[in-house]
Amino acid sequence: MLSMTQLVVVLDSTIVNIALPQAQAELGLTDSARQWVVTAYALAFGAFLLLGGRIADYAGRKLAYMIGMVGFGVASAYGGLVSSGVDLIIARALQGVFAALLAPAALALLTVTFPHGRERNRAFAVFGTVAGAGAATGLVLGGFLTEFADWRWCLLVNLIFVLIGVIAGAIVLSPSKAEGENRYDVAGAVTITLGLGALVYGFSLAENGWADPLTIMFLAAGVILLAAFVWIESRVAQPLLPLRVIADRVRGGALIVQALSGSVMIGTTLYLTFHLQIVLGMSALAAGVASLPLPFAITATAPLVTRLLPKTGPRPLMTLGPILAGIALFYLSLISPTGSYWVEVFPGLLLMGVGMGFIFVPLQNVALMGVAPHEAGAASAAVNSAMQIGGSIGLSVFTTIYVSVLAGVTGAPTAGELTAAYGATFQAAAIGMLAAALIAVAMIRRRTDETVAEAAVATRVPLG
């Protein structure tokens, strides 16, 4: 049941992507506005994840799980019944907020339900496998529902999972929460949420020009609010994110790499979906299946990287991974409006998946090594938040690039013009991945023996 919860949270990161062209046409979304259907979910999820973990620990994990599950269901129903693009974006943001409460509560419940031994290892293996399958499931299920039912069912299908989760949770789960005196860091939660929101919105406005007063205002407000968050965290007794968790050079480098990887996974895969459907003319289901080489390659690469990690240490793997992903993205940037999927897209997706596999396995270990047990939840939430926030910012930047390339186009863009715009976003993503490789070289210096000693512990750290 708890693994199914993680499936729903991950699945909703991809299931709407396939349905977005149809939703955009029906609701009249502009190209600039449509990215917020994805960004709203990722931004709300990432921004509220730290707070969600604290609420689960302090108020009670079962209570947080039940509230998160019901709220997620209500938000999904709202999104499936909307009549305007604005309402859809609001619904997706609400989904993200409740997912941020649901995900850490589910993982914390898994941790206390299976405290040690073989059962714990098996439970986390199942949890991780289901989470890994969520992206692939979302692509195929989203395509199937969009093609044979309606794009709205990509949201309404969540009600089935929610009903099962609520009934099973009420019967099976036992209440638990953190002991001792616990205080919420309200000021920290407000400043980081508003700061990240202002920053992402500022990047999305950059399509009007980086010198536009509104763009500058929101970007400046985001920076000031995030600086205020750091100042608050350095002074409160029970911070939302203890600064020592992210001050470590190696962990800080891992978080930056995670953010850049998130920008690629969330941002470029969306524009690849548009290329498959709008330019190559694939159906929603065919586009979903055509996107599967990426998650499959990540899954297939993970066991190899797991075996290599104790021998090589994380630095070589986290350097090679972004380089491979960057090469794949440069290859994808060469797409043409009449090109073959098997020649122009499939090889790039496969190589990109291998590169991401080389990143994600060592990154999780490095980011969570050396963290004190009472700060493990905050550290793990920071890793997951970096992925979502990086994706939000990346998607806003890629959309700005996409709109800028099409700025001089009058009327509906041709297939060639769309392909040029998509290619430009892939080039920008490739540069980002090469930057991630440089960051890994400069900041990831953990020794191999430390990786061997701590990797097993790191993979079992809870979110909240």
Write a structural description.
The chain is mainly α and 464 residues long. The chain has 3 domains: 175 residues, Up-down Bundle (Growth Hormone, Chain: A); 52 residues; 223 residues, MFS general substrate transporter like domains (Growth Hormone, Chain: A), CATH 1.20.1250.20. The chain is built from 20 helices and no strands. Helix 2 packs across helix 3, helix 9 runs parallel beside helix 18 and helix 14 packs across helix 17. It is globular, with a radius of gyration of 21 Å. The C terminus is likely disordered. This is MFS transporter.
Condensed summary:
Residues 1-448 form the Major facilitator superfamily (MFS) profile domain. With 464 residues, the chain is an all-alpha fold.
What's the number of helices? 20
Terminal CA distance reads 18 Å
CATH class of the largest domain: Mainly Alpha
DSSP E strands, number: 0
Secondary-structure content class: mainly alpha
Using the 3D structure, state the CATH architecture of the largest domain.
Up-down Bundle
CATH superfamily of the largest domain: MFS general substrate transporter like domains
Mean pLDDT: 88
Radius of gyration computed on alpha carbons: 21 Å
SSE pattern, N- to C-terminal: HHHHHHHHHHHHHHHHHHHH
> What number of structural domains do the residues give?
3
Query: What is the strand content?
Result: under 5%
Largest sheet: none
Low-confidence stretches: 452-464
Shape: globular
